[in-house]
Structure formats: structure tokens, C-alpha cells
Write a structure and sequence with these properties.
mainly alpha; 6 helices
């Protein structure tokens, strides 16, 4: 008999939306496109196609694993189920944490560079800067940030 496992939903839609937007703006669109185009040159579309194929297989793999093992802990839970080695599970879990930290640092660095350009443009107009401050203040007061 299989046990029904339910994950607790603790993230709200506004928080997830802001997280996704931050990730997209921070790395996907404004930071990495220029870096890839600078390194790949005219082969940038091919590089993006290869990356999309790899991401597709990765996504399908995670979808299959999530369907078979619907528990939190992701990669660590999958490794524990497959190999039943606590040291390997701990190593994979630690690697996931370190990857998250490095990814957050990369996103933050890219977003700060983008935000710097954006705020310099806003500083030319006092009303624009004030509107940006009001926007952030409103998001904080509503509890979205």
C-alpha cells in the first residue's frame, strides 16, 4: 500500500511571482543574453538551442522523479531512495545548498548591475526616483517583499 504524501504550501502567489520575476530579470534576460552573445558571437542561437534541449531533458527528469517520490528535499531524497547511503545524501544536500548560494550571488550581482543602470536613468528625473521608492515601499507594506 502506498502512503499519500502531501506537501505543505507555504509560498504565496505574489511571493512566487516576485521571485520568478527577479530570477528572469536578474539573470535570464538582462545579464546572460549579453554574456552569451559576447562569447558565442553568431553561434548564440545555436548555444541557446543546445541549452534549451538540455533544460528540456533536465525538466522531464525532475518531473518523473517528483511524480515517483512526492517528498520535499529534491535531489537529496532521490539519491537517498536510489543508493541508501547517508553520507552521499548529505553530500548531495550540501551541494544543493552551495549551488543555491552561488546562484543567488550570481543573480544578485547581475541584478545590481542592471539596477544601477536603471537608477542612474531615474536619477535624471526626480519624479521617477520618487515613484520607484513608492513602489518598493508599497510592496513592503503589503507584505510581498
Amino acid at each position: 500500500m502506498t502512503r499519500q504524501v502531501r506537501l505543505k504550501r507555504v509560498l504565496s502567489t505574489p511571493r512566487l511571482t516576485l521571485y520568478d520575476l527577479g530570477t528572469i530579470f536578474g539573470a535570464g534576460i538582462y545579464v546572460l543574453v549579453g554574456e552569451v552573445a559576447g562569447k558565442a558571437g553568431m553561434y548564440a542561437p545555436a548555444a541557446y538551442f543546445v541549452a534549451a534541449v538540455i533544460a528540456l531533458f533536465s525538466g522531464l527528469t525532475y518531473a518523473e522523479l517528483c511524480a515517483r517520490h512526492p517528498v520535499s528535499a529534491g535531489e537529496a531524497a532521490y539519491v537517498d531512495e536510489a543508493f541508501d547511503r547517508s553520507w552521499l545524501t548529505a553530500a548531495v544536500g550540501s551541494t544543493v545548498v552551495f549551488t543555491g548560494v552561488a546562484s543567488a550571488a550570481t543573480l544578485s550581482s547581475g541584478f545590481v548591475g542592471y539596477l544601477d543602470v536603471f537608477t542612474k536613468a531615474l536619477s535624471r528625473h526626480a519624479d521617477g526616483r520618487l515613484s520607484f521608492v513608492r513602489l518598493v515601499d508599497g510592496l513592503v507594506r503589503k507584505g510581498y517583499v
